[in-house]
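Reading is simple: each integer encodes one residue's backbone shape. An example follows:

___
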Amino acid sequence: MTTQTTVDVHELRRVVGEMYCAVAETPTDEFHFPTGRAWAADLGYQPDLLALVPEGATESFAGVANPFLLGRLHAGEAVVDLGCGAGTDVLMASQMVGPTGSVVGIDMTPAMVAKARANAAAMGAANVEIVETLVERLPLADESADVFISNGVIDLIPDKDAVFTEILRVLRPGGRIQIADVTLQNPVSEGAKRDIDLWAQ
């Protein structure tokens, strides 16, 4: 069963993609959300691990909270980051799981994917793979991940049922989901559901 929505999904992806392309390519511009290394520090990211993440990643960090406050990752775990952006969370996870673990970053924005790959290479994170695809269709094997993380991404996707169906397919029994995201406490009007600008904020 899929979530019913009247928003133009293709147009929404285009607008969201353009916005995060700008965050990747011109990170010093002003956006309607906070960005950067200082913002990650304010959210409680572990200072010693954050210090090792290249500036190329943290300058485009646009998370809404800290998924690692829900639990530290463990050595050897297989982690998937939905909507990895320029790679800050991926590279934090990479350090936590160590060389016996693995981290797959998923993003639909080509500019972010390119930047995340460059940042992983700059950090020498051999346990990281960055994949350009939609989070609703993961090119990952069933029961292949120990942990899913995500930071400010699932709220941008209309078909949340598809996202969680994929998470549950790929997650191993006993695995964990650590999501930092924006939620609404009140019902949204039909007009608001069709407003691309509201979705993209």
Q: What stands out?
A: The beta strands are 78-82, 102-107, 128-132, 145-151, 171-180. DSSP finds nine helices and five strands in the chain. The longest strand covers residues 171-180.
